[in-house]
Amino acid sequence: MKKYYVIQVWMVAILVLLNTSCKKYLDAKSDAKLVTPQTLQDLQGLLDDANLMNLKTTPGYNESSTDDYFWLPITFNSQPITTQNLYQWIPIDIRYGNDWNQGYLPVYNANLSLELLDKIPQTAANKQQWDNIKGSALFFRAYYFLLLAMQYAKAYDGNTADTDLGIVLRLKSDFNIPSTRASVRGSYQQVITDLTASLDYLPDYPLNLLRPSKGAAYALLARTYLYMHQYDVALTYANKALVLNSYLMNYNSDPFIISLTTAVPFKKFNGETIFYTEMASTLNLNSTTRARIDTVLYGKYNTNDLRKTAFFKANAGYQQYKGSYAANASTFFSGIATDELYLNRAECYAYLNNVNSAMDDLNYLLKKRWKSTVAYTPISATDRTDALTKVRLERRKELLMRGLRWMDIKRLNKEGENIVLTRNINGKIVTLQPNASYYALPIPVDIIEQSGIQQN
Amino acid sequence: MEKRIKYAHYSKWIPGTILLCLQICISFSCFGQQKPSFILKGHIKLPDGLQLQVSVRSSKNGYTQSDSTGYFSMPLHAMPDTLKFSAVGLKTQYEVIKNPVSFLNINMEAATQMLNEVVINTGYQQVRANEINGSVSQISETMLNARPGTNILNRVLGQSTGLLLNIGKSNGNPQNTTNLSIRGLGTINGPLDPLIVLDGFIYEGDISNVNPLDVESVSLLKDAAAASIWGSRAGNGVIVIITKKGRYNQPIAIGFNANVIVQQLPNLMAHNQMSSTDYIAVERKMFDAGYFDDQISNSPYQALSPAVEIMLAQRSGKINSTVANAQLDALSKQDSRSAYLKEFYTHAITQQYGLNVRGGGSNYKFLLSGAYDKVLSETYQKNNKVNIGLTQEFRAGKNLTLSGRVYFTSLETASGRPAYNSLSVGGRILPYLSFRDAQGNALPLATAYRGAYTDTAGNGKLLDWKYYPADDYQHNTVNTSRWDIFASTGLKYKLTSFLDFDLSYQYQRQHDETVGLSDAQSYRARNLINTYTQLNRTTGILTYPIPLGGIQSLDLGNVSSSTARGQFNLNKTLGQHSLTAIAGAETRSANTDGKSAIWYGYNADPLTYSNVDLVNSYPEFLTGNYTQIGSGNNLTSTQYRFMSLYANAAYSFKKRYTLSGSARRDGSNIFGANTNDRWKPLWSTGLGWLLSDEPFYRLDWLPELRIKATYGTSGNVDLTRTALPVATYATNSVTGLPITRITSINNPDLKWEQLSQWNIGTDFTIKDRRLQGSVSYFVKHGTNLYGPALYDYTTWGGSKELVRNIAEMKGYGVETELHSLNLQRSSFRWQTDTYFNFNISKTVQYNNSYTTGLYNILASGSSITPLVGKPLYAIAVYKWAGLDAAGNPQGYLNGKPSINYTAMALEASSSGDNLVYIGSATPTYYGNLINSFFWKEFSLSFNMSYRLGYYTMKPTINYSRLIANGTGNSDYSLRWQKPGDEASTTVPAFVYPANQDRDYFYADSQPNVIKADNIRLDYINLGYRLDVSKMKLPFRSVDLYASMQNVGILWRANHLGLDPDYLNTLSPVRSLTFGLRSNF
């Protein structure tokens, strides 16, 4: 009998031990690096993940489709058929591993951060961090929504913006919510709503340029309103942004310039940069090695314009681009910088018929790019139209390969500029007419299959 | 008579169908009753410590059983009669009764070395093979010795049913390292490895640590009933490895083994490398078309192949066409394969030595073992392994047994020379490399940069920037040292005569230290230093962000695990009822941690290093791009915990009917899961019937027949699948700030995978044990299986797929095992072991709109691709309409021959009408046939393995890849070249620029799928046992053996002479083994 008693004690002891220690034992974290995000630090970490949020992430299909570059026949002929088709604005079967998924990934991080942030009360102690997360998340979402709209939606046209198809506005992290396409107006409105809201939370200046700031939000608002043809509002925001940062590099001598003649002329995170992102290289038709700069465009740079040296490298009679602010010969900077702000503001002034202010901004910018040993002759404009033409030409010359040209072509065509794109394919001329439906670039095929949203 | 009625009465308790059969049989046997004329009484003396009922069968007078004390009585009507005394675990004995005897004394001995009386160790308990209802294969030491080699898992192959080595399969699953599968597949995207158990505990280290010489037996737990005791990780079956131990009351004995294995050189020349002449002709075409011009002008430093360098030199006028052609001609006579063979390959040699000492007294037993392996691989990698093991058991009093075991492994590995095709020039694999010039000097290879450029780039101020493969491996080494301790201790306390309590604890720790050293002369160090060297062109001053000297990297990795287990063992026989049961609880933790670091400017003597700036970016010398110096620092740590409660019971009545069941509940710290989902109950049940033990059983030619059936469930959990979004922490190198990255998004609907398995089988023995065997039929059914479902990745762009419980699979198969003694003469014996497997695993359901068509398995077969109604590894290809008159491959579009590849791809992915289903890509029928001959002191055996009923895709020429990265294929020489060729070849004409769609169409079309069926001669083993009795030697036995492994393919279905299992890699080469095994 005594033996049975021993057994019972054993069993009871084991069961008790198991019940009490089980839960604790199994609550240990399986990987010390893993978290289920819930703290402010976790959320800030999501937004600080520059490799997903900033670096080689912004859409590049648009720049691959512009007229700032062309291919030599030898380049064209050695490309696979699909790439050749892309070059001629023929839609191809694009699937996962594209601008769509790279563009919506930051949106997810932003959405998740916003949802989880709602569960963390804002206190006096955490206010600074809490606000930065809230503002950053809103900014990132707006930033990528706008970039996606620039690529996948038609240019904003006040008359048709309610019916033109915009982008998918994902505002929640739950994948069970089906994707639907908003209107173009709805898409731009969401960008403005998020950006306006972010202003209440963002700091004036960021800890580093990979983080959003109030300056970046103002600048992005200026860009958004410019695209919506609301030049007066755009002007207001451009001014606000320039109050926070108005630095322009002097190409003659500047701490941020390595040397105009080297393969990489500018330092990374230079003084003009307000918010730093890089263009994705998934399609990369405009890669610096393949692409040659449009000869007409190149011809428009004055000999004494230092950009001619800084931006371009001659190769067998043609020019290759090397002016990226990414300090890497094969990576395109696609963020926000002060030079764009000056040009935005100049365009607003010109459009609003303030020709003098427009020319002042333009000359201020160009003088910084002019060889100091040669006297700079300021540009002047005869009237509003002339001013607009001059500003927009300088815009193209200054901001090439920054992911802005495609949107500029389509928005300017909406204003009647009638820009026809042409490609010379072994002697055969292929054109893309203004306002062609291709300006809203094709959405990846698998997204259409899975979500059922309408293709462009 | 009384007993008979009792049986019938009891039989009511036996369920279902068996009851019916039984009653019919019993009633038949009752007709044979005659009046007794004489009652025989007797006593059976059993070996010490045994208490069991012996069956007594007369050839004329029926059947009875002894009682538990050994007494029996039997009425006899006819004489003479032969009585057969038999019981499980005892040697069957016959007694002829000619005249009435008053009392018969029978002495029975324990059976030894009888196949079906092997004791099987499931890791938790020891069960006799014929008392287990589950399906288990046991591989004995002799069978393990048939294949030499240092890895125990390789030795298990081809010696049982159920186990298949999946060759050339790759699935993106970290728990797929062995490529072994037991009874096909049970999951689609879950873990694929069987669970490995060493001496009762899950083995987390590298299984190659275990020296095969120390292994006594290996058991494969195949069905759910056998494996379920191992719980949620046993879904893919369990491999239980048992090491040798001492025995009580055994005088000290010493065992010794020494052998050497010599391998042939790999057959590189059989590799489908494109000919150098063809290759240079293609490069010429590309060069003339300007393919390299972009690169030459944009990045003049980037490497060009030797042929292109010559063409460039000719074009720029540095050499004339005569010189150029002569140089190209010389190149075309070179062959990378022979260059590699000469410079980097050797005959691999493995030496193995093992020694063990074992013995035991009445209260103590031990085994001490030591082993040393020395391996020189075919590419000169060196590998030295030492194993030391001590196993002891001590009886401390009547009721207490203590045991302990320590197994220590030390392994030192040194890297060798470059393997075939591991060297490239500017990313291109070339067929005409040479590593030394005629004088024997090492030649540079332009792996990344052009020598002509780097020579002048730094005005002579940089370090030599060339890579010399023939020397570099001496300066660029990786050495790994490992030690591993696997220790366990146990305490067994006998609580009552029938109840034990076991307490055991196991601890393992494997520590790896990998030191990578690129010394100052190494290309890697010189290249990195040069890359970051800052040259002030005006002052000529050089600064070195990466200091001069070598680079040393260190990786430390630890894998540790511990298990604590408390278990009750019950073993009770009450009359004809016996119950064996175990119940216990277990906790396990498995931890890994890793650290890595890197030192620049390293010098061994005097030992120095320098700190480098890891934060700021520096312009690279050649590109000018600003980059950071790579930091090799990293820290990792994982910790998995499991907790289990389990019970297993087998009730047997008269040793004839066995009912078994097991239940287990597992918990783990799955990350991101709710606590409720962390526990998973699993169970199994089985029924066994020893038919031949029934009184009515009269089949003399089949003296043993057992039928069994089991059903059970097991689960699979992939610890990376979670219900909450899971993020991992890292540090951003640019900002230095911590980042969190979502690795899997919130997926709250995920459930555990569930796998159930039915097994019905029979074991039988034919008279005189001339033929023994077993047949089983099993059905596996996996539900709630994980699967990547395409989803609208607008939500989260991190993946195009989301893991969901979307799949269901069914597998079924037959396993047959036959052991026959074909011929037995006084000095000659011939026996055959046959293993046959038939197995198909099919997808039953896959809730993913994407996977409805054959397009999903287009030219697939190397990874699991679920498609409803098709095997998990399956192949479909484009229908083939031949080459057209211009050498273009034609498929079908809307039923008509077409060369519109884009449209055909579209049709393939939508309707799939232009595709044709081929079949399974893993063997449907497979097995082995082992014939062994014994003549006097000689033995000879050979093992033929067959793999049948499957297909594979043959690699072919892909012109786009040939152009883009230089990957050639010898099919190039078979290509269409002139009109008319389409009648004799299927290889398309070479076109430039290449059309990727055309290339993929051809590669994925009918001509490139081959039937993979083959029969191989795995090994021939020859043994000679020295007759030591006549010699005055201290040996008890001496065996000499020789073996040839991977002898060759005896038959293959394809007519191209290809080895279908190794189309993308080199076939295993023949090896010769010579060895000596001795006991003294």
TrEMBL record, chain A:
Gene3D superfamilies from the UniProt entry: 1.25.40.390
All copies of domain SusD-like N-terminal, residue ranges: 24-226
The places in or outside the cell where this protein is found are: Cell outer membrane
Extract one GO cellular component term from the record.
Answer: cell outer membrane
The UniProt entry, under SUPFAM superfamilies, shows: TPR-like (SSF48452)
Q: Could you tell me the keywords of this UniProt record?
A: Cell outer membrane, Membrane, Signal
Q: Which residues form the RagB/SusD domain?
A: 315-437
Q: What is its main location?
A: membrane
Entry's InterPro entries? SusD-like_N (IPR033985), SusD_RagB_dom (IPR012944), TPR-like_helical_dom_sf (IPR011990)
Q: Which family does it belong to?
A: Belongs to the SusD family.
**What protein name does the entry list?**
SusD-like N-terminal domain-containing protein
Name its species: Mucilaginibacter polytrichastri
UniProtKB/TrEMBL annotation, chain B:
Q: Which cellular component terms (GO) are annotated to the entry?
A: cell outer membrane
Question: Where does this protein chiefly localize?
Answer: membrane
Domain called TonB-dependent receptor-like beta-barrel: residue spans: 451-946
Q: Which Pfam families match?
A: Plug, TonB_dep_Rec_b-barrel
Q: Which Gene3D superfamilies match?
A: TonB-dependent receptor, beta-barrel domain, TonB-dependent receptor, plug domain
Query: Keywords, A to Z?
Result: Cell outer membrane, Membrane, TonB box, Transmembrane, Transmembrane beta strand, Transport
Q: How does it sit in the membrane?
A: Multi-pass membrane protein
Domain TonB-dependent receptor plug span(s) in chain numbering: 130-238
* Listed PROSITE patterns: PROKAR_LIPOPROTEIN, TONB_DEPENDENT_REC_3
Its localization reads: Cell outer membrane
Q: Which family does it belong to?
A: Belongs to the TonB-dependent receptor family.
List the protein's name.
TonB-dependent receptor plug domain-containing protein
